[in-house]
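User: Let's play a game. I give you a shape written as tokens, and you guess the letters that built it. Ready? Here's round one.
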């Protein structure tokens, strides 16, 4: 048997705090005294470091951090060979791991998370339950090649354990015939949010677990965090996910704060991925100088579309519309349109209505995607289009637009200028709140009531 295996076996056998199924909690080893083989006091177990350099479900413990005053040492768990009552003893040839300290003498690492400093008593994201929770304790266990983190204890038993009241707490519950189970979130679903330490952890795949959630769920979580923490998360996401997340945030003030915190270049990258109308809404709430700085860093075509939208009053059709829509020239046939549709549609949110334009961009007709799919390949689009198109003008008020969409049961309505040139479309969701407000204001008998 190797020295490491012997040391591990001895630690498991002799240590009461690690005896139950070879598992233990962080709180059970913190502040335990450490002595060397000659009974010289080394310090206290101050923290446990885990390796965060790889995106694995249950990261390994990389070191036990021992502190004595300002003196910090680091050891592998195999260097602890004995436990007697209230202290650990190091092996006769215990070797310290190299320790990097910051300017304030605090433990620093680019690849490690300290469980007490960075996770305990902090908010984390439970990516299985899509919620923010507070960590009361951390469960670890021995495996063949070391110690791994099992999960975060978010229940009251974790807090009672740290206060030394776990047995009393459970005994009291038993008197009332109640069983209080531990509430452990598997570490594979744990996403630490930042760190209290000024030197941020540089993970190989930062927020990898969080990034697989739906943007609406990420937005819900972000709305409960500080602007600094939220900014850190947005920066870690790819631009497309960050754009979708930003669009899902309901608090307008938070959107603005995040854009301001992201910096001009990053903000431009994210806004480039947003529909022009949503980007215009956000930039419209910034100062003119801030908005122009971001627009200058955006894709030139996208920036031009956003500038056009920002030139209209936000309560008019021009301010509500998006310039992302699908249109075809009047001389196209069905086969040509389908080929073009396959290229364009992946980047367009509303791809159900397809508009037909005359030369010069004049709106001539509309067809639905269903019309296009069921038509014969060589039919001209002008043969299958509907010439009676419901539309609105650039300066029409929001309520008028909402009434038209509701009256004709439309998913979207085109917007034209005074010369009937197609400028954009307004989708149902952009005026849904207004439609609801109008409906609530109608007399009961006009709503179909008895």
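Assistant: Ready! My guess for every position:
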């Amino acid at each position: 048997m190797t020295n490491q295996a012997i040391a591990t076996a001895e630690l498991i056998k002799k240590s009461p705090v690690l005896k139950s199924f070879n598992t233990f909690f962080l709180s059970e080893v913190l502040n335990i005294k450490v002595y060397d083989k000659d009974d010289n006091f080394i310090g206290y177990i101050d923290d446990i470091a885990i390796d965060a350099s790889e995106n694995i479900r249950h990261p390994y413990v990389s070191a036990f951090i021992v502190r004595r005053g300002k003196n910090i040492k680091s050891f592998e768990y195999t260097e602890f060979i004995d436990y007697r009552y209230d202290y650990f003893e190091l092996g006769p040839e215990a070797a310290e791991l190299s320790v990097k300290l910051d300017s304030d003498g605090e433990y620093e690492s680019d690849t490690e998370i300290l469980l007490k400093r960075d996770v305990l008593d902090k908010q984390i994201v439970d990516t299985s339950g899509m919620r923010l929770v507070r960590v009361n304790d951390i469960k670890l266990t021995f495996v063949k090649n070391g110690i791994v983190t099992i999960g975060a204890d978010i229940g009251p038993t974790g807090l009672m354990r740290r206060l030394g009241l776990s047995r009393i707490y459970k005994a009291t519950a038993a008197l009332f015939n109640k069983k209080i189970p531990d509430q452990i979130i598997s570490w594979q679903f744990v996403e630490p949010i930042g760190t209290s330490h000024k030197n941020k952890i540089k993970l190989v795949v930062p927020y990898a677990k969080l990034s697989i959630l739906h943007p609406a769920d990420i937005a819900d979580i972000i709305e409960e965090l500080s602007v600094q923490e939220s900014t850190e998360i947005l920066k870690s996401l790819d631009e497309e996910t960050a754009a979708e997340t930003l669009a899902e945030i309901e608090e307008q003030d938070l959107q603005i704060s995040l854009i301001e915190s992201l910096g001009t270049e990053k903000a431009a990258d994210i806004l480039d991925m947003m529909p022009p109308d949503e980007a215009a809404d956000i930039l419209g709430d910034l100062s003119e100088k801030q908005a122009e700085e971001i627009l200058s860093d955006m894709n030139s075509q996208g920036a031009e579309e956003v500038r056009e939208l920002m030139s209209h009053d936000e309560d008019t059709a021009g301010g509500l519309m998006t310039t992302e829509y699908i249109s075809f020239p009047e001389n196209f046939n069905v086969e040509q349109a389908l080929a073009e549709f396959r290229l364009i549609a992946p980047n367009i949110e509303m791809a159900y209505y397809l508009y037909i334009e005359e030369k010069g961009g004049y709106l001539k007709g509309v067809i639905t995607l269903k019309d296009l799919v069921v038509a014969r390949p060589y039919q001209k689009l002008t043969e299958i289009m509907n010439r009676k198109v419901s539309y609105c003008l650039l300066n029409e008020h929001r309520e008028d637009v909402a009434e038209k969409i509701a009256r004709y049961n439309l998913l979207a309505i085109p917007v034209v200028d005074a010369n009937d040139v197609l400028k954009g479309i307004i989708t149902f969701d952009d005026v849904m709140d207004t439609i609801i407000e109008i409906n609530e204001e109608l007399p009961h008998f006009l709503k179909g009531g008895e």
